[in-house]
Amino acid sequence: MTTEHGSFVSLLKRAESRARALAAKGDPRAAEAHPFINEALRAAQGSYEGPACARPGCLHTATYEGRGRPPLYCSTACQGWAAQQRKGR
């Protein structure tokens, strides 16, 4: 993360915190803006489309939120399919 990116994330965190506080006080404009600020913050913090799903034939990508090991499968359905294949069912 570059210094500029870190500053941008910091600004988004401050904006999200302020919008949340104002929305809690009943400000309708803040309540309307808060979800958009929160979405931008999550995007800036590192959520991205990860690798293609490891299940053969699946065309989806696994979404990675930037915490822990990146997922191999796009969904629990594909993960379950792989587990069944490993068990030989």
Helical residues, percent: 55-70%
Q: Can you tell me the overall shape? A: elongated
Report the β-strand fraction as a percent range: 5-15%
- Separation of termini? 44 Å
Provide mean pLDDT, rounded: 82
Helix/sheet category: mainly alpha
User: How many strand segments?
Assistant: 2
Q: Radius of gyration from the CA trace?
A: 19 Å
The spatial strand order of the largest sheet comes to 1-2
**Secondary structure tally, helices:** 3
User: Can you write the helix and strand succession as a string?
Assistant: HHEEH
The major beta sheet can be summarized as: 2 strands, antiparallel
Q: List segments where confidence is low: pLDDT < 50 over at least 5 consecutive residues.
A: none
3D architecture notes:
This protein is mainly alpha-helical. 57% of the residues lie in helices and 10% in strands. The chain is built from 3 helices and 2 strands. Strands 1-2 form a two-stranded antiparallel sheet. A hairpin with an 8-residue loop joins strand 1 and strand 2. The longest helix is centred in the first third of the chain and has 22 residues. The radius of gyration is 19 Å and the shape is elongated. The termini are far apart.
